[in-house]
Amino acid sequence: MKKIRRAALSLILILTLSPAYTWEIYDQVIAVVNSQCIIESEVNNKLSYLQKSKNIPQKKIPFEKSRVLDKFIEDALVYEAASDEAIVISDARVVDYMKRMMKDFFITKIKNAEELDEMLPKLAARLEKIRKDKNISEDVSLDPYIHRFISFIESTQKIAFDDFFEEIRIQMRREQVMSIAIGVTPPSQEECKKWYKLNKNKLGYEINLKHILIRPVNNSLTKEKEANQKLVEIRSRIMAGEQFEKLAALNSHDMDTAQKGGDMGWSLMVELDPYFAGYVDRMRKPGEVSEVFKSGLGYHVVKYLGKRPVTFDKVERLIMFKLYNEKIFTQFQKWVQKKKNESDIQIYMKDYVKGGA
Question: How far apart are CA 63 and CA 354, in angstroms?
Fold first, then answer.
């Protein structure tokens, strides 16, 4: 690097309104990347989220905090490059990126697929407006849905929603800068096949199923019981001789498979809801009909048809994505190091530990 200096901490001071007019420390600049300041409270905030997700011994905290600071430095370099390329990631773009997450969440809360597709743009627009002005009153009927989604993000990600929102913005900015600054050729099919042959035994298998899904209208205990009971009755009719496929077409809430008699085709286990996958993984006999069970999507009855080793065509896209990301990561690390060497980086963190320590 051109410069990495440890110096006395730069202090941002505020005047405390007291009779003595004393000065107090408000925050500290923990690093400077060219003209960008990194504030210690922001680094500590990210470190606190990390501590919630894993147990960090006291003696390792300086190392972990140093790695969090390194990430801030990388983000500052990316932001600088984005500014040079006039790349702006607006709130609208972040919300659009989040639509897939919103759909996955609300698909278990809104029974009708057409209603969900119609509501998603409104939910996205409302979320964008809330980000700009939390006091606006229009579309207030959507707020309960938005608040449930925000609560879901905060409980699963262990991070405040606004911080999660900014993390997505940072990731999108990084991806766009990488696409411009780093020229990486996608892996060839031959490279993918070679990787598949070397790792085939580690890929597991895919499973062929049909299912009937009933989603509770909401999370109330009454609706949960109603959904479960309805499937118990449907399963009894199947076991008495009625066609699984006909009952799936008439009753399943999975619009994508209902008109195909509940046929899910061949599915990779890793693509399935974890609770769903955990249950069907225990099924062995072709034609076997499961008991009623619950997943993250709702209540199911499943007809097991068989399983087989994962075929190349099923995972080719995933392998290509994996190899491509590995190439990008390698090139990105080289790009970051080059930018660091060209930049004026000052680190003021006490007990900063260099990477690899």
Answer: 8
- Residue-wise pLDDT for 50-87, tens only, equals 888 888 899 999 999 999 999 999 999 999 999 988 99
Amino acid at site 294: K
How far apart (Å, rounded) are the C-alpha atoms in residues 99 and 91? 12
In tens, the pLDDT along 3-52 reads: 444 433 343 333 334 444 444 445 789 999 998 999 999 999 899 988 88
Sequence ranges of the chain with CATH classification 3.10.50.40: 204-309
Contact 161, 153 (CB under 8 A): yes
Compute the distance between CA of residue 174 and CA of residue 177 in angstroms, rounded to an integer: 5
> What is the CATH topology of the domain spanning 204-309?
Chitinase A; domain 3 (3.10.50)
| Sequence-ordered strand ranges (E) for 176-253 | 205-214
- Please tell me the distance from the alpha carbon of residue 94 to that of residue 276, in angstroms, as a whole number: 30
- Residue 299 pairs in a beta bridge with 214, 294
